[in-house]
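In response to a reviewer's request, we include the raw inputs and outputs for one of the modeled complexes. The three entities were modeled together in a single run.
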Amino acid sequence: MSSSSAESGWLSSPILKKVVTGVTGLGLTLFVLGHMIGNLTMFSGPDAYNQYAHFLVSLGPLFYAVEIGLLAFFVFHIITGIRIAMGNRRARRSRYAVRRTAGGPSRQTVASRSMIITGLLLMAFLVIHLLSFKFGPGGPGNANAAYFTTVDGVGMRDLAKLVHEKFQTPWYTFGYTIIMLLLMLHLRHGVWSALQSLGAMRPSLTPVVYTIGGLLGAGIAAGFIVMPLAIYFGFI
Amino acid sequence: MIITLKVWRQEGPDVPGRFETYKVPDANPHMSFLEMLDVLNEQLIKEGKDPVEFDYDCREGICGSCGVVIDGQAHGPQRRTACCQLHMRHYRDGDTIVIEPWRAEGFPVIRDLVVDRTAFDRIVEAGGYVSVNTGAAPDANSIPVPKDDADLSMDYATCIGCGACVAACPNASASLFTAAKISHLALLPQGDPERERRARSMVDQMATEGFGDCSNHAECEAVCPKGISIDAIARMRREYMRAVRR
Amino acid sequence: MLDSKIPAGPLKEKWDNYKNSCKLVNPANKRKHTVLVVGTGLAGGSAAATLAELGYNVKSFCIQDSPRRAHSIAAQGGINAAKNYPNDGDSVWRLFYDTIKGGDYRSREANVYRLAQVANNIIDQAVAQGVPFAREYGGLLDNRSFGGAQVSRTFYARGQTGQQLLLGAYQAMSRQIHAGNIEMFSRREMLDLVNINGKARGIITRNLVTGEMERHIGDAVLLCTGGYANAYYLSTNAKNSNVTAAWRAHKRGAYFANPCYTQIHPTCIPVSGDYQSKLTLMSESLRNDGRVWVPKDPSDERKPRDIPEEDRDYYLERRYPSFGNLVPRDVASRNAKNVADEGRGVGETKLAVYLDFADAINRLGKDTIEARYGNLFEMYERITGENPYEMPMRIFPAVHYAMGGLWVDYELQSTVPGLFVLGEANFSDHGANRLGASALMQGLSDGYFVIPYTLGNYIAGTSIDAVDTGHPAFAEAEDAATRRIDQLLAIQGNKTIVEFHRELGKIMWDEVGMSRTKEGLLRGIEQISALRDEFWQNVLVPGEPTHFNKYLEFAGRVADFLELGELVARDALEREESCGGHFREEYQSPEGEAMRNDEDFTHVAAWEHSGDGSHVRHTEDLEFENVQLTTRSYK
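The model returned the following structure tokens for the whole complex.
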């Protein structure tokens, strides 16, 4: 008997769903990696940070194209992610009383089990994050003279000031830190999983890629966390 | 040894199940796990109660009939061992063991620990074969097969179809089972002409049966009595993408 | 009386002659003929797939949840074929000769020759299906040698040859199920055969999930339901292997041939206690390097490593200096029983002998032994918890295979027209003893290459009445099956089915086992008969008939074993000679070797079931025109 719970319609193939999640996931990983490195310019001072932000905006159409692409990646990643999670819930309605991983070759971890939770929290964070910074004071549609500065004779948005303000509030700083730890978890499973989903694995590569995935997740999260903490504790 | 068992009892697919607790006072370390359940059933029958139903046949780990989740692990704690070959010497006197059926929508419960795994048959029917009629075969040695390919193909062909991969997968995905068959046949020249068609139809059938998607937890590989690697799943995805591109 | 329908002509041309002259069914007409195939092992699976490919309308039945789980799957060693790829002098003739001799000259020449002829096609077919046989680095197929042959003719897929061949047949079936040519009925047990106007026309099955009785009608019925070794309770057969379908067919007119030919395999893991549910076989290849021994003194309680050479009895090497540990299965098994009877058995139960690899490890190194037998050693350790690299293995013989089965002619047709019997369920090709790697060969030969011709000949040459499942014969059979189930459940005695089965097994093993005597067999017959009476008064079957109820299934099977067991003993009693798997202590040489009586017993004994439950013995004389009957000697 075939189950009525099966999905149909657009992108119902379990493999295409995973390929889309994997490709968008890897793209987004590259994005957060770039974003994290960009954030580190704050350690060279507010001017460097503002110049870097201004440089990106001044790319004009190219910048908007990348933004639209990123938006599409997020949308696809989130939609397929949610669909996969919902399908998986449908695939097991009756829960085990006891669950235990068999260990060994199993890659089942807190990270792998909580992809949908970390993912949804990251999505919520993304909205708040965009509202706080991109669309915050001085951003598009929110002109504010207090957040305007001039560096080397070039007028630009004083994003560094906004960042400093935000990361002086404890709830924002520590909330951000926690979210970045969740990002680490998400990447811990996500990076290697994406490569496995794309069929890129070879037996000899699996442990290496799995390790790299973990290091990359930890590295990106650490890179994101140091700047707010440095601001909060007054180092910069 | 005295063993306490918490066993899932369910009278039929649409009846709610529950755990029942039983004591097996005369378990023995040399018994297999299923023999211990036999002893429990003898006890229950004599008490006028319904015995616990569970599937089994060869009891030497090759037919794939048996399979229960023991303390949260499909086939129990011993690596690469179907529960018919798990022995009670892995337990201590006084232990409590929780036994549950394979839980997945693709495997509806028939009774107690017995589930309906015919979804696996339908996945194979969708394309898990080489379309060759009896009598049409050329001499067996007419097509050489590199030994490494034949050996790897055999690694995947050892699947016993027990369903532990689905049971252990947090998503109740049948990917390892499906991938093992696709990989077994894709690695051999005899399976080559149909590889695209096979990959597409088997994967589509797998989705139709209501199994979850693979999220690469790799728990399936850890519980597989034959230790089949999830590299099969990566291969299945390559085969499928290759078919989609055509 | 019994017409074996062996075609005319020289041995080598018989099968070709048959194929050239048999009647054919028009391709367009095949669709109109329904064939019921019971069992999905190598014989049933290959038959169902092949007949469906030809265009017949096939209905297939199995007791497991999937056709892939039939017990053929457990065969380890390999499959024989006279391909002569190793260039070591093999030929169809040699494969034929080895099989006839291995069967102790108690099989039909024509059948065995056909088997040897089609064996090569089986390998071709399996490879084309994607069976991943072992290969050499050059990419060609590898062969190994096996007991009873001096050439390497065994094809294998690790220690899982049966599994891979069965999956090949299962996949071929799956393709036909998908195409709509096979309708598959899993979790169904055949409970009766329906004959209409003297021909087999249908079966009654019970749906093992819902308990419903079902009627199926067809133009012919194929029984591919395996052997009856589970009559001994402990055997290497799967737990669900049973004789019920064959036995019910027997009661509907199919003769049962040579039931006393049972094979006891020497290298099984011994019984560890009363709770034991089955026995596990280890490949007999172990005897290539292992040395079999027991202590000389029955009261020797020392650990095996502490027993010095001079206190050990390597009894096979002592008694059979030229073959030593490599004597055939029956000889090795009987000798193990003898030392155990003398009280020199080892281990807790005293029902085991040592198989010691210490010398081989010293001579060849642990690595070599591991490469040869690693997976077997692992399996042994998993089951016993002992490490065979350090401690000698304990082994003991166990019932393994039934050479006997329903009588069939050259066309595999039983004494009921339209009822064909394939694979282990028939008696045909192995005589009194089966050689290793021959069971897979026979099952697939019957299903892939013999039945497509002989079934066509039957269907084309028979007028089949237009009836349906409303025929009174169906109603009568279904009622009988239902009544029996109700009767089993109504007894509500105080002994469980397993207790009865275990008791039957003990009688069978003690009195109808490896070594039989007139007195023992008479005693066995009496005990079985008494146990059967007790069963029908005192068995305790739990649950209801309307749900999944495994103990109810077993109850019906044990009831049939209780009848078959007696027939095995009767057949053994009547066969006053020792041959192959049948050893009568009265008929042995002064050195204790089996003595055939070719004068009086070069025949098949086929038992007819008469209405009152008694049996009539018929015979089919075996004529040997091509081979000389000789005495096997392994001294």
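As requested, we also summarize the result in words. Chain A has one domain: 14-90+110-232. The helical segments of chain A are 14-39, 46-57, 61-91, 110-113, 115-134, 159-166, 170-197, 206-232.
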